[in-house]
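Schema walkthrough. Field components (list of strings):
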Amino acid sequence: MPAIKATELVKTYGGRGGSVDAVQGVDLEVAAGEVFGFLGPNGAGKSTTVRMLTTLLSITSGRAEVAGRDVAADPEGVRRRIGVALQEAGLDPRQTGRELLVLQGRLFDLTAEAAAERASELLALVELEEAADRPIKGYSGGMRRRLDLASALVHEPEVLFLDEPTTGLDPASRITVWSEVRRINERGTTVFLTTQYLEEADQLCDRIAIIDGGRIVRAGTPEELKAELGRRLGLGREATLDDVFMDATGRARTQVAGEVHEVSA
Amino acid sequence: MTHALVLARRALREGIRTPEAILPTLFIPLFFLVVNVGQAAKIFPGSSTAFLHGQGYGAFQLPNSMLLAASFGSAALFLVEDIEGGYFDKLRATPVSRSALVLGRLLAEGVKTLLLAALIVAVSLAFGIRVASGVGGFVLLILLTALWGVVYAGFMQVIALKTRSAAATNSAGLIFFPLLFLTPNFVPRRLLTRPMEIAATVNPVTYVMEAMRSLILQDIVWSSVLYGYAVVAAAGALMLLVSVRVIRNYD
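Field assembly_structure (string):
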């Protein structure tokens, strides 16, 4: 049974100025235990897809199953089985890191004692023990990301959704998050990761899909996609994921001093 | 209900850590009490004004201040902060029932308003105001205030969920504000001008205010008290219905 299966997933936003098709018939299948990378330019439909799969956004049409539960018919069943760390590390700045994790545990029906114990384990896992009892408003961006990741793991989810987990982080913090993702995946958790860093996808993901204009335009393992492009274009060198991205979306991505810029081809 | 209680504890902790949001809700109603009494107490001397039942004008004004305090709840603005900061989505991604997400903050608001109401009455006692209905009446008085606070905060939360903006929530809250003043807040209803009397009669807040006032000025007058509680119950049921509907359709 796949961990995630989406069929003809569509999201249309209605408004006074007309409707916008943010996601236009996405088909996805992610195997249990995989790290799946979901790439695309800004506004391509990555976050909208994640929000539909995590029950945060209603589905206009199509069907999605996550951890064996239908997203529309059994959203609570899905929520019990997934962990979610969204693009903006959504944390309550007035709570301490420990309080936030205990609260999260209690919301997943852990007893007060079990939630406290789990919070301590996770704080150790993401190396936030020293800052555990300080208000989150004093945490750095990297610390917030790690705490957000920890909060998504409180209930040992079957599927973990990470929406751009390293955006805005310095290289050292990024590498820490990567090693956490690998460690989580080694324990058997399926990881669905959106990212704008192609290097990140290359490093972490077993398979990737590229979305553009609300449609999946490429899908496969990074090696398959690179080899296919090399063959098709007859490149005199090994294709990179950047080449694949540019070929798929018509946009090049360059990285200058850690910032990612998109350039129309 | 466990989830709602867990979320209520978090909201209370948030309130304790933000005293700057609570203190004005105590001082502004007391300020209005002092100003209103200062302006009108000579017109209505306790010794010769029948509707004061032997107390000073401050006792008549006290319910206004308590209702004002109950209507200053910050639940909706904290909710907007959660929405804007992304934490609300984090909560929505948990298996917590959608109604618990609404109820958590409302329970906390009830506790906060209960304490605030008790504190305002305690301060008033120091200025010679008595709760004529005794300890039982005092309990009914602060409970009614707290329940009104919950209902008001609930409607404000609905606005917060619909607009997702602090500025819009603040502005929309002003729509409800006249309800507090289209009441017999300076004199009993029968002494109001005819248009004001009609406005006060159709305004549900009037019945809450009159119930509170009867508990302060007289012994427990059950007809009046039950009217007040019935109005709060009806408004509360409507508020819960709308809240659950809004949060279930929240995208």
